[in-house]
Design goal:
This protein is of the alpha/beta class. It is 40% helix and 16% strand. The site of flavin mononucleotide has 16 residues, from helix 1.
Length: 186
């Protein structure tokens, strides 16, 4: 078994200046020793789920996503909150991959975090995402819960995180994910 822990990260926002993408960048800069982070950048290419399209064969972009999930030792979802839930584009991607015959989410250790403009820092979206994790047999890490409220006050105009407590939460999450992956393996 390889010593390096390969984490595959999916950000649920397509926005260029996304706070969630900035938070993911902070995670990438604060990995524990021995962990690598592969950041997904094709979410906007995934077509809307359509069973008729699936019957013709999975789109190559979905095959690629499924393979990258399968190959990862753990997953990191970085999700915005849209109307108290997970953004449609993220849920759509999960829905596609969930229909693959090998169901690559099964047994996968998962961490999640999110940044929002509101006061609850994506808590409601994360709890919905956790429901999806249950059905797909993922193994989500419970704590720490990293919910970044009022993200517009936590990053400066250059996109740099200015809130040290948030940096520490993100760092702790990545360390906890490393321990979680090892625990799930044992
Ligand atoms: C369709 C839509 C729904 C939203 N719903 C919520 C919400 O339920 N709770 C919340 O805190 N913010 C909500 N917001 C505001 C987002 O938190 C804010 O746009 C945030 O910056 C999105 O994340 P991003 O910066 O990574 O794109 C919503 C935004 C959009 C576009």
């Amino acid at each position: 078994m390889a010593d390096t822990l390969k984490v595959f990260a999916i950000c649920g926002s397509l926005r260029k200046g996304s706070y969630n993408r900035l938070a993911l960048k902070v995670a990438a800069e604060n990995l524990p020793a021995g962990m690598t982070l592969d950041q997904y950048d094709r979410l906007g290419e995934i077509p809307p789920y359509n069973e008729d399209v699936k019957q013709q064969g999975f789109p190559p972009v979905v095959e690629d996503l499924g393979r990258r999930i399968k190959e990862a030792d753990g997953l990191l979802f970085v999700t915005p909150e849209y109307n108290y839930s997970v953004p449609g584009v993220l849920k759509n991607a999960i829905d596609w991959v969930s229909r693959r015959p090998d169901q690559p989410f099964a047994g996968k250790p998962v961490a999640m975090m999110g940044a929002s403009g509101g006061m609850f820092g994506t808590g409601r979206a994360q709890y919905h995402l956790r429901q999806t994790c249950v059905f797909l047999d993922m193994i989500p890490l419970n704590k720490p819960e990293v919910m970044i409220p009022q993200a517009q006050n936590k990053f400066d105009a250059q996109g740099k995180l200015t809130d040290e407590a948030t940096r520490k939460f993100i760092q702790d999450l990545m360390a906890a994910l490393a321990a979680w992956i090892k625990r799930v393996r044992d």
